[in-house]
Amino acid sequence: ENPRILPNLTLGFCIYDSYFTAKWTYQATMLLICTAGRLIPNYKCSTQKHLIAVIGGLDTQTSLHVATLLDIYKIPQVESMSFAVSLPEMIISLQYAGILSLLLHFGWTWIGTVVMDNDNGEQFLQMVVPVFSKSGVCFAFIEKIPEPALGSDIEDMVKKGAGIHDKIVESTANVLVANGESYSMAFYRFLPYLSEREHVANAPIGKVMIVTAQVELTSFVVQRNWNTDFLHGVLSFTIQSNNVPGFQEFLNTKNPSSPKGDGFIKPFWQQAFSCVFPDPLLGKVGGSMCTGNEKLECLPAIFFEMTLMGHSYNAYNAVHVVAHALHAISLSGMRNRGMVTRGGQTFPMPSFSFQLHHFLKSVSFNNSAGDMVSFNENGELVTGFDVINWIFSSNKSFQRVKVGRMDAQAAPGQAFIISPEAIAWNSWFNQPVSVCSESCNPGSVKKVKEGEPFCCYDCVPCPKGKISSKKGRHYNEKYPSKHQDFCIPKSVNFLSYEETLGIILTSSIILFCLITALVLGIFQKHHEMPIVKANNRHLTYAFLVSLLLCFLCTLLFIGQPHKVTCLLRQTAFGIIFSVAVSCVLTKTVMVVLAFRATKPGCKMRKWMGKRLANTLLLSCCLLQAGICLAWLATSPPFPDIDMHSVAEEIILECNEGSMMMFYCVLGYLGFLAMVSFMVAFLARKLPDSFNEAKFITFSMLVFCSVWLSFVPSYLSNKGKYLVTVEIFSILASSSGLLVCIFFPKCYIILLRPDNLELIWIHSRNLSSEASSFPLWPAKYPWKPRAS
Asked: For residue 342, is pLDDT > 60?
């Protein structure tokens, strides 16, 4: 009674049993909407029963069957959290997220699951299995308990139940997640007594059970004195609730002899206390007689609880929701649309049940337990879940202890709260362990068993070069100790400017650049000398500049690899080096053609000149540039990290992208070098004073020797030593060209200028045909000394 809600008005109620079957559920619903004793749809002449709303059944199927008929008449059904399929997924998903958080908190990754064989059980599996598996939880087994129904094959149900029990007992999974309906626990309690094996006539030992909020602690009459040991320590999810003050006192006032008692009390009293009430019509009845003074608190808690929890609490809230909605109607503008007269007084009531829908959605109040009851904009109940620990004592007393919660309004990652120290585990174990395979010890790694779930694995020694310092984990950022039980950080490997090798190479590069620049300066200073003018002076300058750039491009190979340096490193080397080798080839070809053009009647004379040299040089270089552009367009080089080649090091390198294109660049350089060598070899018998054939031949021998030895060295080295090999090859081949071709000329220019007289005299003795195409300039400001 609450004077602030519907004052002076008492709401009546009718209770019908669904018997867990669709047939009786439909019949009970028809009795609500029809005239008493007449199952005639759309006909109701009784004015004493004005149906306003229906409180839904405890289980899913009951609520759905009831809704099928009530929807026709627009009569609201207030769910007492039966978790029907039509309920908001937000609430259902919140519970499943809480179960997953509980499993992960205790490291339970190997579980069994039991559901009822109905739509609710199938929905549970469809929502839970993918999410749990993704989070690392494996299912040892998934079993479906046949749903009881009239006409069911009892023998078949018993056989299936026995098989499920034996599988639970035999499984290595120590955690059982049980989903079902309000009555499912009564059927779960039958399983141990259905075992086909005589030595397993008890409940599963050493298993912890997690039950969903749909499952209520219920028992059949025959189960009142059954063993409850296996239920001790159960963790259940229930809708958030608190103790309703005055409820136990209210129960103590109930007496089957009271004239105001409802029709359920006497049958319940007789079943609960195993007694009978005297009935004059039946005469003397065997058994103890009920006095009406029996105490409800003396009943086993498994049979009757003195607290308002679980589904009972939900039904309590559902009744108050309807009452508050009716009170809101009485205060609204609808008060004159429908009036109900009771005891000479008139009360505002809705004329039709559908008028209640609008007010139900806007209900918000604090119940007597202090909990807020409200709905969101979608008409969904805003609530969370409590994690309850079931504690049974030897005297059959029962206690629910709240050990955690799942808060629907908490921030992400903070919704689940658990207090492990408050949990009373079963006497057979402390906090249980439920994993398919134990974590691997340091020095070993997981190997999934073939045909088994992913959390079932063998532990094998770590591969060479890897360690496992934590259970079940191995790292690549460190390398193992001798016994592979702790990490040693890997050192980062790349050729830097600060280390000794980098300093030596950088100094060598600078030295060769200075020497090349010095040679170029000497040739520019003495640019009018015949030895400089001979065989295309501008080609000589281009050759020296390309050699200078060859030395400089090796600086791209030193330092930590970056995107730009990786892109330029090989392509710049390939193009610049092709210019240098092409200059050698062009000089050699021009020497050979020049001497052949001196023969009488030779038609090559018209091809001689700068145009041929420039065309040959550009053609050779453009072909290499095309190869490099194709390389950059298809598979460009990029910075990479090699963590596997060397166990103790992390190698920072430039991945070539396409090794085929890299070898194409080298192959083309080799082709130019071989052609230059062959042409120079053919020109070796020409007069030494007029050509560089023998020096070019020797320089090409050096060049080819260096790059032929480069390939095996490149393939056999890693890290900074691989880069060093390439830098050395570039420096060695470039310096070979510089020394072999230009040092002899510098020697003559600087130290033996008198040799130029011999060259000049020798040129005068050439045949007259040669004078028509002189390799030595006919006019020059500098004249040889007279002998």
From this structure: no
